[in-house]
Amino acid sequence: MPVTRAAIAGYVLVVDDEEDIRDTLRELIEMKGFKAQTAANGAEALEQLAAEKPCLVVLDLVMPVMDGHALLEKMRADPQLADVPVVVSTSAPHLAPRDVPVVAKPIDIAKMIEWLTRYCLCAPADA
Question: Considering the entire predicted model, what is its pTM?
């Protein structure tokens, strides 16, 4: 069954300091029919999160300004954001918090699509 925009709940926020990775993930997400926005660091991501809650955050850990650990901590402390699913995308999976799913870099596309489908598709009304 193809993904249609009507079936998508919200958007995916990709947070990574590497422009090539942000653009590649955004293109992958959009090619699969999902909506995507990007941020270059945790501070930019917080601004976007204040405006609109995503269905999923794809989060790099090592970034300038505000790293992924600090962003995750702020999200968990905010009742409006605490329930937003996060998938860590990193070349250092051993640095990821144990309770957060990890997609190691280079990105496993099939695994990323699995997370998108899990968190960003609306459940059918009769489900």
Answer: 0.85
